[in-house]
Amino acid sequence: MRNKYVLIYQEMVQKIEKETFKADEFLPSENELAGQYHTSRETIRKALNLLAQNGYIQKIRGKGSTVIAQNKFDFPVSGLVSFKELADKMGEKPITTVHRCTKINASDYICDQLDLENNQEVWEIIRARSFSGQRIILDKDYVSLKIVPYISEDIAKTSIYNYLENELGLIISFAKKEIIVEEPTEEDRELLDLEGFYNVVVIKNYVYLDDATLFQYTESRHRPDKFRFVDFARRER
């Protein structure tokens, strides 16, 4: 027999999907839910934790649990697409705010990620992406200056990949990706709308040209309620 908190979780999922519990509204309190389901607050707390882990609710300290809208954007994990290409498929026009587009001497960390010598110059490009008036993605790009000698703020605001491929003639071939969950940094808090959120999903991209030259390292930092990270896998026989 399944644990009671799992059964409560499944019933609450159905209520969220049928909009009995509506998006952006708060759920009843733990005490109220315990009374409705004739169980303990601890059992309710386990069910709520499961809802939060699976992206149905967001716990907000001191206020309760709010239902997350289920119209998440599908973000292809295995694909190598620019944000502009992804946004075009979403059918919703985002706003890109460029906070920084400048040459810097790469830190030891960035040198390690791009396999560069110490203090080598790179482009640092920091951009926030907004949907429906909410800043939900922070893209931090570091691009080898030896490969890309010039990038402007206007290019960063539209599409860097379009510029690299169609104006510089570079052939972007493949990327290695790493997905982790972290606590937000001060920069995340400043540049994203994260009130009530205590984690960000970080996709680290190591991007290579067709000659296997590593030229770009990116951290794409996502608010966790708006994206569903998807992939297609086929079993090899």
Automatic annotation (TrEMBL):
NCBIfam families: trehalos_R_Bsub. The lineage of its organism: Bacteria, Bacillati, Bacillota, Bacilli, Bacillales. Keywords: DNA-binding, Transcription, Transcription regulation. Pfam families: GntR, UTRA. Residues 2-70 form the HTH gntR-type domain. This is Trehalose operon repressor. PANTHER family: HTH-TYPE TRANSCRIPTIONAL REGULATOR TRER (PTHR44846:SF12), MANNOSYL-D-GLYCERATE TRANSPORT/METABOLISM SYSTEM REPRESSOR MNGR-RELATED (PTHR44846). It comes from Oceanobacillus locisalsi.
